[in-house]
Amino acid sequence: MPQDRESGAAAVIYGLEAGKLIAQKLAATKEGRSNSNEYLFNGRHIVIKSARHKPGKIGVSYKMLEKLDAILGAFETDSGTYKVYELSPVQFKKHEQPPKSKGASKGRVGVVEQSIFYGKGTFLKELYL
Question: What is the pLDDT of residues 58-83, one digit of tens each?
Answer without folding.
Answer: 999 999 999 999 999 999 999 989 99
